[in-house]
Amino acid sequence: MEISPKENARFFSNSTVLPVDRSSFRSESSASKEKQSCCGGIKIFLGALSFVYFAKALSGSYLKSTITQIERRFDIPSSLVGVIDGSFEIGNLLIIILVSYFGAKLHRPRIIGAGCLIMSAGTFLIAMPQFFMGRYRYERFSSTINSTVSISPCLQDKSQTSLSALEKSPAKINAGCEKEAGSSMWIYVLLGNLLRGIGETPIQPLGIAYIDDYAVEENAALYIGCVQTVAIIGPIFGFLLGSLCAKLYVDIGFVDLDSVTISPKDVQWVGAWWLGYLIAGAISVLAGIPFWFLPRHLPTPESRKDSSTSSEHSKFILEENKDQRKSHQQQAKIAEMAKDFLPSLKNLFGNPVYILYLCASIIQFNSLIGMVTYKPKYIEQQYGQTSSKTNFVIGLINIPAVAFGIFSGGLIMKKFRIGVLGAAKLSLGSSFFGYLLLLSLFAMGCENSDVAGLTVSYHGTKQRTDDEQALFSECNSGCSCSRNDWDPICGDNGVTYVSACLAGCRASNGSGKNTVFFNCSCVGTFESSQSSSAVVGPCQKGNECPRMFLYFLVISVITSYTLSVGGTPGYILLLRCIKPHLKSFALGIYTLAIRVLAGIPAPVYFGVALDTACLKWGSKRCGGRGACRLYDSSALRYVYLGLTLVLGTVSIFFSVAVLWVLRKSSSPRDETLSANGERGACGTKSRKDNFVNTDLLIQSTYWPEKETRL
């Protein structure tokens, strides 16, 4: 059968058209699937990373909420608690360079997953001492523990033997010291926090870089912003969890709670601090699971394949088919980068704006870190609030104010298109007015509680002394009392006595929290006393204290907001006043300096300073000084607020110097153009250069440990 040329052409035409159509359809389908896979993969990673940010922020803020609980449980001073708090930064610094550099060469999601496991292991380790130390033992008179034994607090009858005397026999002392050896287990808390810092290290640098590599370029800012928003939510739940656990007794589930004779208002009260760490550790484990199933690479979005920007990870991939010449070129490039290190460092520190802003930031973060670390302690001791209520108000009021301040700072920068000089002014203004508001808190303190022998004499005259001999007076001279005990009772005259024995009480009725002491000779001799009875527990602060606490909260919230407004402008100032190729290096030096010179030392020397305001120290069973039981309210206020304000004032002087240098180095025309976004006062040449890259702009809402700044 012959086929005509016309039919032959039609045949070949049909046979060639069909494959082309199928190929085109297959190509479109493949592209659609790749886009869906890319979007789905990056969104899964985004959700997992957001959960990790929430977990690390929660555990970090929970540690801040348990500072006073740890101090009392392990009977250690504030300075030692500061060392424990700073160990997180030490752990972070140990491996941050290794993780940031080598992490980009390896499987980044799995490194983040491994970091979560290490972080959870450290969190669990912090809670472990609770299960090996034995039960918490606080100082209480025997009749408040066991109603079947009738023992007079003031031992006039030598046939009566106090429980404390029985415990001080050589055998009992040795047994007690072996038991108290567990108090050195605070070292495990320190190691756990150190381990937590190591585990947290890869989350931020590798997670943010992974999103920036594989997200569609216009979506990267939104994704990173979502992660940072979740990071702000974490501390709210952390402090609320701290509030809940502080209400529960430390040995809940192990002892009969009806036998506990102290209340959350007592300075010896220790909440279930360990319970929150178990919860936070479990959350960290759950947060790390998804990363073990995420791919090493995601499909590169179509919009970024032809882009000049390549992923950070791709720069370190060594393909099998690379020839030897490319390997030598890479080695030469690394050697050239190493050679440029010292000149780059010299260039960076030769920038007066950068070095002045770095000094201002270091000093300001010393102020903020110290203030935030001991804020719960300050509220408890100054205003007589419980740990539970303190953590609740910090989590529900202060942290949202910080988040709103950060958002407001970025919004102001965007809406008014503020340039470099304007950013410097806004940062300086927020710091100035923030510390000015903080100055007003000096007038919002409470007077010392009346404690016989410490803040008031046994005859009613005001005094302040930490001399333990002042605890003894004629009214209790016939009693066999210990100066080391802290078992406060409240007399009918409104005065707190360190113990029932030192109050001269000769009889008691009831048991536990309902114990009432009678015939207290020191209570009866007080000028304003009408009876000589007393009840268990310290007396409440003065009537003006609740009102002062309310004023403190209002000013504290406004101060937190005001200081936070300047965070974003200051960070933008830092980025715009350095050469573009030095931005990453400058940010690394900035973060390193903040952590080493502020994050580690500030909690330690703040703790040492606060210890100087202590009037009555607790004593350990084997001898030695324990945790502070009573602070001088006025001295505590002046030390805590004074140190914060002095550091803040010094940082403001450096900020003024930054503004002066900027004004000196920029002409009026530069300032005008900078405000329009065309030219910055630090020498940026175009509008494009005046605004930072997407990832850096979003990270401008972040600074070291922002999640715990109040």
TrEMBL record:
One GO CC annotation: basolateral plasma membrane
Domain of life of the organism encoding this protein: Eukaryota
Reactions that this protein is recorded to catalyse: 3,3',5'-triiodo-L-thyronine(out) = 3,3',5'-triiodo-L-thyronine(in); L-thyroxine(out) = L-thyroxine(in); L-thyroxine sulfate(out) = L-thyroxine sulfate(in)
Keyword Transmembrane helix: yes
Biological process per Gene Ontology, one example term: sodium-independent organic anion transport
Keyword field: Cell membrane, Disulfide bond, Glycoprotein, Ion transport, Lipid transport, Membrane, Transmembrane, Transmembrane helix, Transport
Membrane topology, as annotated: Multi-pass membrane protein
Stretches assigned to the Major facilitator superfamily (MFS) profile domain: 45-666
One GO MF term attached to the UniProt entry: bile acid transmembrane transporter activity
Membrane-spanning parts: 40-59, 80-104, 110-132, 220-250, 270-294, 354-372, 392-412, 424-444, 548-575, 587-608, 639-662
InterPro entries in the record: Kazal_dom (IPR002350), Kazal_dom_sf (IPR036058), MFS_dom (IPR020846), MFS_trans_sf (IPR036259), OATP (IPR004156)
Main location: membrane
Domain Kazal-like: residue ranges: 469-524
Pfam families per the UniProt record, alphabetical: Kazal_2, OATP
UniProt subcellular location: Cell membrane
Similarity comment: family membership: Belongs to the organo anion transporter (TC 2.A.60) family.
Protein name: Solute carrier organic anion transporter family member
UniProt organism field: Ptilonorhynchus violaceus
Gene that this sequence comes from: Slco1c1_0
